[in-house]
Fold this protein.
Amino acid sequence: MNTTPIQNLSDTTLKLIHSRQHISPKRLGDPGPDPEQVEKILGAAGAAPDHGLLIPWRLVIIPQERRHLLAETFAEALVERDAGATEEQKQEAREKAYRGPLLVLVIARFDSTQDSVHPNERLISAGCAVQNMLLAAHAMGFGAGLSSGRGLNARAMRQLFGLNEQEQPLCFMTVGAVTKSKPPRTRPGRGDYTSTL
């Protein structure tokens, strides 16, 4: 049976969705996406659902030449929650800032002047933006993963990224070449999360 271009596109899209998997930042290295590919990955975020056209999230790229600032912030965040952290632990925290060629912080925006759109819907928009970027990176042959941790809400972190009271850091997204792969995880079946009213 012949398939139509739409069917081919549907099959390709579903294959892309189901073959994507989380890759830990420590398993992502060079080469990373080039400037044109970075533009396409970040541009995919703009296709996320956005009720009210609020753009209820923003992205901050952390270039290699600025990673030292994030490294020190990770160390400060560790000390903020554990004053007894050893120098070795602080160094381990710093090293996380240098993982992966492309590193982006995803921030949710909860502007109180736009109360017509529920905060949950804004979070969903941010999540869709992230998924679009992950899928775009995967389509280009890169690995990508999300990371957060307790340091995300530290005072030093909020200060470094200039977060106001209505902004919430959600996660870091790291993109790069997969240096070490792992077996795909078992996906939940539709019956694990679906019911009928």
